[in-house]
Amino acid sequence: MNDLLRKFLEQFNRFKAADIDLIIENTTIETFKKGELVVVEGQISDKCYLVLKGCLRQFKIVDETEKTSGFFIEEMPMVIYSSYLDGKPSEFSIQCLEDTILVSGTREKELEMQLKSPILEQLTALIMMSDFRKAERYIALLNNYNPEERYLKFMKLHSNFLNRIPLVHISSYLNVTPESLSRIRKRIVQK
Asked: Cyclic nucleotide-binding domain: which residues (predicted)?
């Protein structure tokens, strides 16, 4: 499994062999089955992750209904920042939609690695900025577009997700009912 992580890291020209070895020595490869929860709402999530293989969704239970707020596939980082950084119970759960392989690390190991390799501190900052942009786009999607526009934007930005995620989770992410999403999809096909 470490070969998969090494291959992933080698594709970035910024890492020296010593940086890659440091990451591999200080992280763990974890496997999960489809349907398993990686993070459980209400529990502290003290790990950060990188998806090596699989598809996952982030969701929260609101009035006994699951509200999906994010998806993760290969090469995407995955962390519940408020829990990971502040040690607070997670407001979200993360569930595997497929059999999944993740690289996991702890905050303690992350800080140790950053002291040994400044490039890793830069990488952490870049990941956090990317996640912030992703959150901004999601807020804008929900607040500035009608349901059909939301779906069209989702299709454009995340075409690689469409065949991997059940429509019930996509409809939840877009804040529409599954029936409304079905009508939207039918209208789009008829155009």
From this structure: 11-57
Spatial CB neighbours of 153, under 8 Å, sequence gap ≥ 6:
141, 145
**Bridge partners for 49 per DSSP:** 78, 104
Q: What is the residue type of 21?
A: D
* pTM for the predicted model, two decimal places: 0.91
Instruction: State whether CATH 2.60.120.10 applies to domain 2-111.
Output: yes
The alpha carbon of residue 134 and the mean position of all alpha carbons in its chain are separated, in whole angstroms, by 10
Sequence-separated (6 or more) residues with CB below 8 Å from residue 145? 153
Average pLDDT over residues 71-92: 95
Q: How far is CA 14 from CA 10, 20, 74, 182, in A?
A: 9, 10, 20, 44
Cβ atoms of 57 and 165 closer than 8 Å: yes
Residues 6+ away with beta carbon under 8 Å from 25 = none
Give the residue among 166, 168, 171 at the shortest CA–CA distance from 154: 171
Domain extents for the chain?
A: 2-111
pLDDT tens for residues 98-119? 999 999 999 999 999 999 998 8
Residue 28 has pLDDT above 80, yes or no: yes
Give the pair of three-digit tokens for residue 8: 């992933």
Q: Say yes or no to pLDDT of 48 above 90.
A: yes
Taking residues 151-160, report their average pLDDT: 91
Q: How far apart are CA 105 and CA 121, in angstroms?
A: 14
